[in-house]
Amino acid sequence: MWRANVSPALAPQVATGYCADPGDMHMTTPNLRRLLQTKTTVWAAGAYDALSARIIEHAGFDAVFTTGYGISSSFLGMPDVELWSMSEALMVNSHICAATKIPVMCDVDTAFGGPANAQRTMRAFERAGAAAVVVEDQLLPKRCPLGLPDAIQIIDANAAAKKVEAMVDARENRDMLVIARTDAPTLEEASRRAKLYLAAGADLVQPTSRGMKSFDDFRRFRDAAGAKISMQVLGWVEKEMTPEQIEEVAAVAAFGMAPFLTAAQALFDNLAVLSRTHSVKDLPRPMIGAKAFGDFIGFGEIEQLIERYAHTPETAANDR
After folding, report:
1. Which of 221, 282, 283, 298 has the greatest count of CB atoms below 10 A from its CB?
2. Three-state SS for 290?
3. What pLDDT shows up at residue 317?
4. pLDDT recorded at residue 20
5. CB contact at 8 A, 143 and 151
6. Sequence-ordered list of residues with C-beta below 8 angstroms from that of 315, at least 6 positions apart, any chain
7. DSSP label at 284?
8. Which conformational region is residue 109 in: left (phi greater than 0), alpha (psi within -120 to 50 degrees), or beta?
9. Is residue 271 one of the residues assigned to a domain?
10. Same-domain check for residues 86 and 225
């Protein structure tokens, strides 16, 4: 049984107290490496903005896994084909990191270029508070497997391994992880690339569901990697694999699209009715109450801060 047998690179290390921003010393990066040593599988859900990240944490997930598809759709209103810049990706992901106290694994697509771009991306996301980055081996610009599976092209395996090595060399916080994703279309090629990426220093490898056709394929990929893997629970995987099967092969399991698609469907359903009836009385999906949402989002804490630091006439008199 493959329980805590993850990559040797995930061995416990001394906590660094690393900060997301040198000028913001209270923001320490949650330690995903330690979490992986204590749990059979780290269960995560896909965030596309700061609010979804907070709800994921509130729901009890171990970690957040940012979704490039969700962010591209919500931030740009456009498909996930790497239309956004590194700076735009960094801005959204940094808000997500700041909004939650659980580890955030950030989707950085192809790291926006070659080794030099990859190193800059690594350093920027490290400063932003990411607990891990997920980099893929597609040709720039990438194509989302869920939208354009037949248009995907992957770069040379050795070039991809060098990009992983460049990112590993660029990080300063050794508790931050590099997760190397391969979009290879077959088990054999995905397994070959996984070995190269782990040898280059990747902490975890992640195949896509298009390259894995069955649970047995995931087992064989895990065996080839010599350690449990990172996986996205979507496509055929979310319908056919059980939680127990996922835990057998995955150190990290992320429902990358479920939150985003849930929210999108709720908006489609309610707004279609609202546009016709001009009334919220018969919406097919309930809305959260304004008071309940205000409590969740933190108006109570702001009210306490206002009261604590209020400049009253009495304090003004004492200032004289």
Report:
1. 221
2. helix
3. 62
4. 38
5. yes
6. none
7. S
8. left
9. no
10. yes
pLDDT for the residue 5:
39
* Ranges of the chain whose pLDDT falls below 70: 1-28, 146-149, 314-320
The predicted pLDDT at position 320 comes to 62
- Predicted pLDDT at 313: 72
pLDDT of 6: 42
Find how far residue 251's CA is from the centre of its chain: 14
d(CA 4, CA 20): 28
Short-list 126, 19, 113, 64, CA closest to 258:
64
- The distance from CA 227 to its chain's CA centroid, rounded to whole angstroms, is 20
Residue pair 59/39 in contact by the 8 Å Cβ criterion:
no
* pLDDT value for 82: 81
* pLDDT for 316: 60
Element (H, E) at 219: helix 215-225
pTM over 0.70: yes
Closest to 9 measured CA to CA, from 187, 180, 163? 180
Contact indicator for 233, 254 with CB cutoff of 8 Å: yes
CA distance 281 to 254: 35
Any idea which residues carry the catalytic annotation?
144
Is 184 in the same domain as 296? Answer: no
Return the pLDDT at 193: 97
Indicate whether 192 and 292 sit together in one domain.
no
Neighbours of 153 (CB within 10 A): 11
Structurally, how many domains does the chain consist of?
2
Cα 195 to chain center, whole Å? 23
Q: What torsion do the CA atoms of 186, 188, 189, 192 make, to the nearest 10 degrees?
A: 150
Which two three-digit tokens encode residue 21? 């921003």
Residue 266 included in any domain: no
Which segments of 142-214 does DSSP mark as H helices, in order? 157-170, 187-199
Q: Which domain holds residue 295?
A: 288-319
Query: Are the CB atoms for 65 and 47 separated by under 8 Å?
Result: yes
Between the CA of residue 188 and those of 35, 60, 141, 279, what are the distances in Å?
30, 36, 24, 56
Rounded Cα distance between 234 and 257, Å, is 7
pLDDT in the model for residue 318: 65
